[in-house]
Amino acid sequence: MRSPRRHPLLVPALLCAFAVLAARPTDSADTTDAVGSDGGGVHGAAGAGVSAQVARLYEDAAVATRQYEQGRTEAEAQRAQALKAEALLDRERREIAVLHEDLGRVARAQYRSGGGLPLTAQIILAGSTDELMRGQHVFSQTQLAVNNSIDKSRRAEARLAADEAKAAAAWRELEKRNTELADLKRDIETKLDQARWQLQGQADASVAAGACRGAVRLDQPPSAVTNAWVAPVETYQLSSGFGSGGARWANRHTGQDFAVPIGTPVRAVGTGRVVKVSCGGAFGIEIVVEHAGGYYTQYAHLAAVTVDQGDRVVPGQWIGQSGTTGNSTGPHLHFEVRVTPELGSGVDPVLWLSARGVALG
To answer: Which of 30, 171, 221, 259 is most buried (CB neighbours < 10 A)?
Structure first.
């Protein structure tokens, strides 16, 4: 199969694809925010800079991933369009080849019928002046058609060669940008992984000491939440469910686990007030929020909290960062819905959220 780059329509399409890739996420080399109380970045307990760095890198990684995937999608779309155009070109080439063959047959027939004879011989052999003129006219028209076809083919091949060179350069640039985005994505993810475990180390130290570091006041992202209730994390995989058995629990599992990496922003599922922030025991670092109607939600095994006891929260607000503190076998968020602030009064979180328009899956 011919290269899908060989078509003039591909050049402007590729240039459009570059515009999609023009924006790049902020360089993550300077992502650690200073600890202060001037309203910029974060303020509060020592070590807050790591929480801010994780949050920043988390967002940068998401942006880099979206741009990389969008770039690859655009490249595949252009490839499919080019293959379709190449198929049309092949058909046109075959039609031109048939036309050339037909013109060749006409020219050969004309030559055999006298078109190839010298003009003097044609005059001698012609039965009449009209016959001579008709023969000359047919021969001239055939010759003109052949010459025009040859010129047209030469011009088309010249344009095709020029467009092919442009398309090849465009493809190289596109692949270069995608490679750069892939490298940037890997670099951010490496830094994010390192920062996550640094954050987890600080959280483990707090749990071991039984003293919480205090709220890390991260800048909240622009909220796009319009619903009264949301899932506690934005991207996740459901793992251990409510009521499931296991060696890690004395009886049955009291909540729903969300498998997420360390440092994932944890969100308040609805409007409420923080009634508990603690960092000891089986749940590690945990937050409990009271909601209207006598319900409470718990967010456990965190690596950091961004709220203090008594704070009011709204749906989608970042209240912490996930981790693996306490009785945890790996990074995840343990989420409970209770009818009291204490353990032992839980209801199925999946059904509870579903009744409020939040489908987990």
So the answer is: 171
What does the pLDDT read at residue 26? Answer: 42
Within a 13 Å sphere around the CA of 242, how many CA atoms are in the beta-carbon half? 17
Three-state secondary structure call for residue 270: coil
The rounded distance, in Å, linking the Cα atoms of 266 and 302 is 9
- Residue 84 is predicted with a pLDDT of 67
User: What span, in angstroms and rounded, lies between the C-alpha atoms of 290 and 297?
Assistant: 7
pLDDT for the residue numbered 313: 96
The per-residue pLDDT for 36 is 32
Here the tokens at position 31 are 């992502």
Distance CA 208, CA 257 (A): 23
Residues 285 and 248 sit within 8 Å (Cβ to Cβ): no
- The two tokens of residue 73 are 């999608």
- Report CA dihedral (132, 133, 138, 143) to the nearest 10 degrees: 100
Beta strands in the chain (DSSP E): 237-238, 256-259, 265-267, 272-278, 285-291, 295-305, 312-313, 318-322, 333-338, 346-347
Q: For 159-180, give one letter per residue: b (16+ CB within 10 A) or e.
A: eeeebbebbeebbeebeebbee
CA 262 – CA 217 distance, rounded (Å)? 18
Mean pLDDT (the chain, rounded): 76
Distances from the Cα of 218 to the Cα of 36, 45, 195, 254, 333, angstroms:
11, 12, 16, 30, 19
The parts of the chain modelled with pLDDT lower than 70 are 1-48, 80-93, 95-96, 99-100, 102-104, 106-143, 145-146, 149, 153, 156-158, 160-164, 167, 245-251
Q: Tell me the C-alpha distance between 25 and 192, whole Å.
A: 14
Mapped onto helix, strand or coil, the DSSP state of residue 20 is helix
Q: Exposed/middle/buried for 266, CB within 10 Å: 0-12, 13-18, 19+?
A: buried
CA dist., res. 47 & res. 35, Å (int): 8
